[in-house]
Every structure is written in C-alpha cells, then in structure tokens.
Amino acid sequence: MRFQSVLDTLPIYEAGKPIELVVREYGISPDKVIKLASNENPFGVSPKVKEKVARSLDKMPLYPDDTYRELKNALSECYGVKPSNVIQGNGSDQIFDFATRSVLGHGDYVLQNGKTFSMYSIYSEQCGAKVVSTDSIEHDLNQLLDLYKRYRPKLIFICTPCNPIGDALKKNDVYSFLDQISDETLVVLDGAYMDFGRTRDRETDIPPAEIISKYPNVVYTGTFSKVHGLGGMRIGYGIASEEIIRAFYKLRPPFNVSQLSQLAAIEALKDKDFVDSYLKSNLEELSNYESLADSKGLPYFRSYANFITIRLEDAKLSSRELFETLLREGIILRNLKSYGLNAIRITVGRPDQNRILLNRLKALL
C-alpha cells in the first residue's frame, strides 16, 4: 500500500513506560510500581470527582451533549472569558492538531523552542510543514524572534512552563515577544503546567483572558491531566478569539470528549482545595530533588512544573543506565535521550514515593 510520503520520515510519539509493561516484563506487583515518568498527579483524582463519575455511570450508553455547554460555561467562569472563546479537546493535544491543520500547508514554517513537547513538530509535519527550532535548551525569546524574522512562520508554539525542561517565561517577556509578531501568525501558548509555575513565581502566570484580549492571534491551551489528575480521561481545552474558535470547530470531530470526561472535568474545577493541596506538596517535594542534585554536584534545570530534569554528564551512570536500573526495580522515570540529552526527568511524586526514589538516587549517583 502506498502511503503519503510525509509518513516516511514522521516519528512515532514515545510515551512514558506504562505500569502494565513493568508488571509484564519484570513480574513486579502493580502496587509496588512507582511511576514518575509522565507528570501525572501522584495523588490521583479528587474524591468528589470519583463520586460524580460513580453516580453518572448510567450515562455511558449516551452520546454527550455535542455543544458541551456545561463544560464551556464552567471553563468560561473559571477563566473569565465567554463560552464562545472556549473549545474542548480530547486532551490539549487535539487543540494542537486543530491549530496546525487550520493554518499550515505544504512547505509552511513552524517555529518552536529547541527542546519542547515533541507533538508540536509531529502535528506540524503531518501537514507537510517545516519545523524550525532554536538551538537552545531553555527558552531563548531573542533567538526565537530572530528566527521569526528570517522564516516568517505561519505558526509558533510556546510551552511555558516547558516540558521536558521545566523552565518558565515571565509574562512580561512573553508579551514583549508577542508585540513583535504579526497578527497573521498563529501562536499557541501551551499552559499545561501554568498552575505549577504561578505557585513558584507569580511573574510567570499568564491569564488566558488577558492574553487573548491583548493578542487575538493567540490560542491558550490547558489540560485536566496535570493538577486535576484526569490524564486517563483525555480532556483539554483551548481559549482564543471567537474567530479562531470557529475555525477550530470546523476541524473538530463530533463528540470529541466523552460524557464521563466532561462531567469529571466540571467537578474537578470545583474542588480547589484538592488542587491547592497538591500544588503545595509539589513545591515542597521538588526542593528535595534540587537538594539531592546539589549534594551530588549534578546540574539541573530550575523547574516551574511538577517534574525536575537532572543532567547526568558527570554522574556515575548515564541516563539510559539509570533509567534501566530503576526500571528493573519497578521505578519508572523518563530518559530524555530521545531529546538529545543525557538527562533524566522525574515527576515529583507523593512524599512516600519520593523518599524511596531519593534513597536509590543517593546510592546510585
């Protein structure tokens, strides 16, 4: 069978190792596996969300309300925007897909940071676009602007705080950059980790209502997979001008978010205590990993997210060796070799999980 030529070079996204794989390959009991690889909420999901879903199981045979009115109303109230400024997605990944397909054609340019979420380039290349990246690891807005002036891209991706590095841009720096970007260039601001960033430094907080009112070419994306613990429900959203939202809706398949996912998300937005408790724990536990890296003389990136990336060039083990050693013990981390880094990314877990991993890292590194 002959497929599109773009598929010849298109990579397949590599997700973090699932618990089920470790159980199968190493015979470790599921309750003994510690997964700190995919930046999920280690505390799970709000008990109120669990109760809501349990009470709603009889809705499973029914298609959801395809207007998603209740979900959009909840998000609009949360962020101070109109429901017409909101679109729901099967994860925020689907919003990235809408963004690329709405503006990109064969040979168009897309601009992104050198080390960033790999799905940006995958979605862009599916459209036949050419991805241009900075050569920096952390964000360099000056270099990004130079490349913008050179290539005049149709689309720019900015992830702040950034996955997989953890660095965050200050709001005023982002606005200064956007002031120099044409309204004809679509800009996707991925705010998946924004809640963690603002907890560490308020200057990194970028309110969706503010940025889309100042810059009508910006799409702010968010997810319920991180602070709300709904990674398995696959639900995200985009917030943008009505013009952009209308364009995205033309690309959206019907019923793109499940009935139970919508109900879970609405309930999750109500439980602010659950989110605040997690954010507080994350910041406290993150400092323990920073202290360990400092004690071992290992460089790391200051993180504004729920993970830390530690470089291992001067460590006893390479990222591959450390990853495989811990995997055999039932501890799943993320080896960043695929990003061209001899580094390991660690999701900040619960205190009990972190104690186990920190003790192993002290012994191994």
Automatic annotation (TrEMBL):
One of its GO terms (molecular function) is pyridoxal phosphate binding. The modification N6-(pyridoxal phosphate)lysine is found at K226. It comes from the Bacteria. It catalyses: L-histidinol phosphate + 2-oxoglutarate = 3-(imidazol-4-yl)-2-oxopropyl phosphate + L-glutamate. GO terms for biological process: L-histidine biosynthetic process. Keywords: Amino-acid biosynthesis, Aminotransferase, Histidine biosynthesis, Pyridoxal phosphate, Transferase. Pathway: Amino-acid biosynthesis; L-histidine biosynthesis; L-histidine from 5-phospho-alpha-D-ribose 1-diphosphate: step 7/9. Pfam families: Aminotran_1_2. PANTHER family: HISTIDINOL-PHOSPHATE AMINOTRANSFERASE (PTHR43643:SF6), HISTIDINOL-PHOSPHATE AMINOTRANSFERASE 2 (PTHR43643). This is Histidinol-phosphate aminotransferase. It comes from Leptospira broomii serovar Hurstbridge str. 5399. The gene is hisC.
